[in-house]
Write the structure tokens for this entry.
Amino acid sequence: MSSLSCCDCDEGMAGLPGESVSVIFTDPPYIGETYAEAYRVLARHAGRVLVPGGYLVSYCPQYYLPEILRIFEGSGLAWFWLVAQVNSGAKAIVWSRHAMCAYKPIVIFQMPPGSPPPRLFSDVISGARCKEFHPWQQSIHETLHLLSRLAEPGAVVLDPFAGSGTNLLAARLLGMEYIGFEIDPETCETARRRLAQQPLDLVALGVIEA
Ligand SMILES: C[S@@+](CC[C@H](N)C(=O)[O-])C[C@H]1O[C@@H](n2cnc3c(N)ncnc32)[C@H](O)[C@@H]1O
């Protein structure tokens, strides 16, 4: 049974039964140095709630990638793959590195035992720029691509940092169950409205123009 709760995901994930989630697909907040705690929460619970062979898929900032990978050491998860999500529109510049960011890393871990996913996925993906529902909103295209390759309809998808519900909506549109946590009541309400969407809204998805 799908659900979206307005709560701290550390508490929300602690309340989930073991081996009850097929895929954690998430986009944690990373504001300055506070990013680490969000990834620690994921590392604390993922190994318990994921089914054997289940995946953790998470957006990550380039700058902190080595530290984030260290956070997952000892989590019980095994490294699986790195996906590049090509940025659409203007590229952010990280001045301390003189780097123009043309892509965002998406890391994938798997709960052992390792096995290939049901279908081939591409490790370079791109989507439209979408900020209609949340300032940090991601495009749904990437989630639709990866989720449809990593899991089957009926799978249970968890997004602990749900934001406007992009990943939960993708799960729903693919015939999967979803569990979401979002700490901000207003954002949670936005996600609830989006999740009531049916059928596919091709304008919101950026497939066609209004
Ligand atoms: C980067 S945004 C996710 C945006 C999302 N991918 C979308 O497309 O809308 C991260 C979200 O995590 C939420 N958040 C931050 N800390 C949280 C916590 N401890 N528990 C649950 N949600 C949290 C924030 O309010 C924010 O909406």
In short: Strands lie at 3-5, 21-26, 50-59, 78-86, 93-94, 99-100, 103-110, 124-126, 156-159, 177-181.
